[in-house]
Amino acid sequence: MTGSVSAARLPSDEDALRRYADELGQRYDRNPKDKSAALAYAKALHALDQNAQAVAVMQGLAITYPEDMKVLAAYGKALADAGKLQQATEVLDKAHTPERPDWSVLSTQGSIADQLGNHDSARGYYETALKIRPNEPTVLSNLGLSYALAKNLPRAEETLRLAAAQPAADRRVRQNLALVLALQGKFQEAEDLSRRDLSPEDAAQNVAAIRQLISQSDTWREIQTGATKKARPRVAAPSSPARAGNDGSQL
């Protein structure tokens, strides 16, 4: 699922990202109460898959600023990234109000619901977020994955194509679309899409990695099998309703 600690742009090169994180870490160590430094540092840690450390940074900031909704939102997202879903839910509930809803918090709440298998509830969060931020690609991407987890791959593809068509769509959004295309056996389309971000050789390797992900994940393999059975015509009786999976994986 897409969603991050803050909106700051990060270096795309891993070595540059590590240097950036080290610089932010030094700034944070000098003043752990520096809100902008802590938020940016947690974001960089998340990008380096150091989610437990990102949670620790945000937890300290939340103790310092317990009423700051921006801080609570970032803390809740960090908890969600670290898989601490119950804690994330409790924090995110305090990070916005019905009078002033935050679309990014709603999107994260939706991703948590999806990871818990509550796909109908998740789509409710996404649809509310899209009313606030129409055509936001990260929310559309999460919504598309939610349809995929519910084994509705055509609707997932339609939603992810809309997400990928937005000017602000990034590689993660296109990667999620490539996954859904691959789940339907559209490997060449998935590879063509990957070439927007990768060389032809890397795009081919990327699709091979997606194939491996599907083959090794019980959830994605079940979705692929269930969707195939649902699409196959049956003479004796209609297909039974699809059962949703319980996974919030993000590439």
Automatic annotation (TrEMBL):
Region annotation Disordered: where it falls in the sequence: 224-251
Any GO MF annotation of the entry: identical protein binding
Biased composition (Low complexity): 234-244
PROSITE patterns, per database record: TPR (PS50005)
Domain of life: Bacteria
Protein name: Tetratricopeptide repeat protein
InterPro entries, per the entry: TMTC_O-mannosyltransferase, TPR-4, TPR-like_helical_dom_sf, TPR_rpt, UCP035836
Origin species: Methylocystis echinoides
UniProt keyword annotations, A-Z: TPR repeat
TPR repeats: 103-136
Transmembrane segments: none
